[in-house]
Design a protein that fits this description.
The protein has one helix and 18 strands. By secondary structure, it is mainly β. It has one domain: Porin, CATH 2.40.160. The chain has an 18-stranded antiparallel barrel. It is globular.
Length: about 300
């Protein structure tokens, strides 16, 4: 699935607390199954009725393009996001998402469809869980051809924490980078502090994620490094005095540009998230920019 919100890292939500108390931050979330924007925040006590997406492009030739989609969310009686429908400015249906869950409320299938003059896509994701409700298998059909393109399986240690993930491509849609193992490390509070990613299963650490928690300042910082030890990404998450998420940002450096993800929260509610992607053309150093922003809408839901 390559919808922008599925590229955005899922952040762990925090519970309320006495403003004067000091306690460990909740810790960054592990890799999670893909979900629609509504599905990713449906656990909030105040769920959004929908969201708006805006997309702006500045091409290498400096031509521009702007698109907007307004999306409504339908919830099940249990409060789970089961379908979403998006319309463009002319009220044409251009996006439809659907989600199925098991009896425990775990996502087991998510389908994304987009069809408008500027962009068309279809993708489906499936998830399976063990008897403890832990994610053990995640598969993706990213181009809508009915063929699974990537399968990821997860293993857990005796303490119940995720210990490793194994990803393998099953079609030619993705390159060798889709074949990797990832290993997880935790601190004494059970929070994720490091992941080691081995691309190609050759035993070397090709990408390292380090997570640091400043409990007193209520700030979480993330650093990504490549095989050579060069920093290729940085991120921060801030929490308010009630230990609600305040805002977060991740910036990734590519050889031909940068990707910046930003998240905004208010009193524990997700308000917006965005991606700003800049590409630099090597032949003449010309720049292009793509800005995607999603803003949640709250109020009286139908």
């Amino acid at each position: 699935m390559r919808a922008p919100w599925l590229l955005l890292p899922l952040l762990a939500a925090a519970c309320g607390s006495d403003a004067l108390s000091s306690r460990p931050l909740p810790g960054t979330a592990l890799d999670a199954v893909g979900a629609s924007p509504g599905g990713s925040v449906s656990a909030q006590s105040d769920r959004p009725c929908g969201y708006k997406i805006s997309e702006d492009r500045v091409n290498f030739d400096r031509s521009t393009q702007h698109d907007e989609i307004t999306v409504s969310i339908t919830y099940s009686p249990q409060g789970l996001d089961i379908s979403e429908q998006g319309v463009d400015g002319n009220h044409n249906i251009v996006m439809q998402n659907s989600t199925d869950y098991d009896s425990a409320g775990n996502l087991i299938q998510y389908t994304y469809m987009r069809n408008d003059p500027g962009y068309s896509a279809k993708a489906t994701e499936w998830a399976a869980y063990d008897s403890f409700g832990r994610l053990v298998r995640y598969s993706e059909d990213d181009d809508g051809d009915g063929e699974v393109d990537v399968v990821t399986t997860f293993a857990y240690g005796g303490d119940g924490r995720r210990s490793s993930a194994h990803s393998a491509r099953t079609s030619a849609l993705f390159g060798p980078s889709a074949n990797y193992d990832r290993y997880y490390q935790y601190d004494d509070e059970g929070r994720l502090v490091q992941t080691d990613k081995d691309v190609g299963y050759d035993g070397s650490v090709d990408e390292l994620l380090l997570v640091h928690y400043d409990d007193a300042a209520r700030i979480e910082t993330r650093t990504w490094k490549n095989l050579a030890g060069k920093v290729i990404g940085n991120g921060t998450t801030n929490y308010d005095t009630e230990y609600h998420l305040g805002n977060a940002e991740d910036v990734f450096i590519r050889a031909d540009g940068t990707d910046r993800y930003e998240y905004a929260y208010l009193d524990g509610r997700a308000m917006s998230e965005s991606l700003t992607s800049e590409d630099i053309r090597g032949s003449d150093m010309a720049k292009s920019e793509y800005v995607w922003k999603l803003t949640y809408t709250y109020g009286r839901c139908n």
